[in-house]
Give the backbone structure.
Amino acid sequence: MIVDDALISRLADLAKLAPNAEERERLRADLEKILAMVDKLSELDLEGVEPLQYLGETEQKLREDQVNHQLARENALANAPQTDPEGQFFRVPKVINT
């Protein structure tokens, strides 16, 4: 792959960057080095090498849920602009048309 000004411009647009001429040259040089390293990887003999699937532990350790700092419903609704008629829930404008 050729790293030319068009590629740098496209990548800069995608990343929403506006590099100056010096930064563009550094990006071009860095991209060429990265692509050269990737090309070097294609020279490796990977016959019989299984792909690595996980770098760390695969089992997730979950903890028990704990209720902390619970706010009473009355306190939560105290400053609400509107609540339902029973005072149980926040009342908000409808935002989804069905």
